[in-house]
Amino acid sequence: MLPKIAKLEFATEEIVATDTVHSSLAFDFINGDFILVDGKIQENSGLDYVKTWIEKILRTRKNLEIYSSYGSGHHNLIGSVFDRDFVQAEITRMIREALLTNEAIQEIGDVAVNFDGSELAASFSASTIYGQAEVNI
After folding, report:
1. The dihedral of CA 34, 39, 41, 47: what is its sign?
2. What digits encode the pLDDT tens for the residues 53-94?
3. Contact (CB, 8 A) for 27 and 33
4. What is the CATH number of domain 23-136?
């Protein structure tokens, strides 16, 4: 038979909330490799972190097995035959939806979607807790 335990006592520790420190590994998207200085991978913080994060999330296809809740759904529009006005509205919505998941990004504005033949380019401004970022994709 087990002994009776009248009262359990646990030591508690108060947790103090701190501001989140945003940082990521610096990546050169043109060359497809991490940025090294003296053999060490560099880190981005502040506005550079946000720019890197935006590039990563917009390059990642949403709803893949490995990234079920990360990425952007705009990849699903590639090869579609929808009206350009619809595609423009959907790209704008999908960019906002993907980027506003990051608490460092406060607002996405001035979204412009341009078509050049079969290619699409988008630009927008991102208001962040670190300042304003202008993005072209």
Report:
1. negative
2. 999 888 887 766 666 677 787 777 777 778 888 888 988 998
3. yes
4. 3.10.450.40
